[in-house]
Amino acid sequence: MGPRPQARLDPAHGNPGLGRLLASAAAADWPAMREQLSAVTDDWERSWLLRAASDVAGYEQWMPKVVEAEGDSGLALLVAGARAVQWAWDARTGASASHVSREQFRIFHERLEIAEDLLYRAAEREPGWASPWYFLQMCGRGLEVGQDVARRRFEASVRRDPGHLGAHQQQLQQVCAKWGGSHEEMHAFARQSMESGPEGGPLGMLVAVAHLEHWVHLDSGPDGTYITQDRVRRELHEAADRSVRHPGFAGRIEAPECWNAFAMAFALNGDKQAAAAAFAATGGLVTRFPWQYLNGADPRAPYRALRSGAGRR
C-alpha cells in the first residue's frame, strides 16, 4: 500500500480551465476572461467558474470600467456582480452577527446593493441564464429578503437550469435553521432535490451537507449522538450511490467538493470504510467547503485528522 497523497489546497480544484481564469482575474486581464467565459455554454459551469473567480480580490476596482465600456454585455455585468457579492461578504466576514460591527454591516449592505443592480441588469440582458439568479440568491440571504423572495430567486435559477448544484446549495442554506428555516425543512429539501435529479448528478451531495449542517448546529455531545446514527449512515450511502459513486458522475467539475463532503460526513458518522474510500477519491485535494466547519483557517488540518482516523486505503 503506497503512501497517502499529501493534503493540499488548490483554489482551482485541480481544474486547468479554472486555473487559467483565476490567473486572468488576478492579472486584470479582462480580454482573456471574456474569451474564456464566452466559450462556456453550460450554465452551471459558468456559475462554478465565476464563484471561484469571485474570491480573487481586487477586480472590483477595475470591472466598473469594463462595465462602462461594455454596458450592453450581460457577461461583463455578471462578472462584476459576482465579484461584488463576494466583496460584500468579505466586509461582513464569516463571524456571527453579534460580532459584526454596525460599520461592517453598513458596508456589507451597500456592496450587496451594488451587486443586486449589476446582476438584475445581467439577467435582463441574458434572460436565459441561471447564473445571475444564482448570485442573486447569495445577495438575498445577505439582505434578508425573506423566504418568499429567496424561494422565487431559487425557482428562477432552476427554471433555467434544473440541475444547477449551486442554486440548490444556496437554497439549502436559506432553509437551514441558522437562516430562519429548520432542520426538518432542510432535510426535506435535500432529499427532494436528490430524488428529483438524475442519478449520477451532484444533488446527492445536498443530503451529506444537510447532515453536516445539522451536526454543526448541535452542542458538543448531542452532535456526536446525532451524526453517528444508523439512519444517517443509511442516508449517506443512498446519497453517495445516487451521486459520487454512480458511474455517470465521473468527470464532473464539482467532484472534488462533493467527495470532500462525503469524506467528512462518513468520517464523522464512524463509517471508516466508506470514509477511507471517499478520502481516496479526493486524491489529497482539500476543498475549503466543508472543512471550514471545523477549521476555516486551515481546512487541511481536520482533513488530515479525519483521514488518519479512517485509515489508509
Protein traits:
313 residues; mainly alpha; 17 helices; 2 strands
Structure, described:
The protein has 313 residues and is mainly α. The protein has helices spanning 16-26, 30-38, 43-53, 63-69, 74-92, 102-125, 131-143, 147-160, 165-174, 183-196, 205-217, 222-227, 230-242, 255-269, 272-282, 288-291, 300-310, and strands at residues 8-9, 285-286. Strands 1-2 form a two-stranded parallel sheet. Helix 5 (74-92) packs antiparallel against helix 6 (102-125) and helix 13 (230-242) runs antiparallel to helix 14 (255-269). The longest helix has 24 residues, at 102-125.
Q: Look at the helices and sheets and give the structural class.
A: mainly alpha
Q: What portion of residues belong to β-strands?
A: under 5%
Q: What is the approximate shape?
A: globular
The biggest beta sheet is recorded as: 2 strands, parallel
Q: What radius of gyration results from the CA coordinates? A: 19 Å
User: Topology as H/E string?
Assistant: EHHHHHHHHHHHHHHHEHH
Helicity, as a percent range = 55-70%
Give me the side-by-side strand order of the main sheet.
1-2
Number of separate strands: 2
The low-confidence runs, each spanning 5 or more residues with pLDDT under 50, are none
**Number of H/I helices:** 17
Distance between the termini: 8 Å
Please state the average pLDDT score.
93
Summarize the structure.
This protein has 313 residues and is an all-alpha fold.
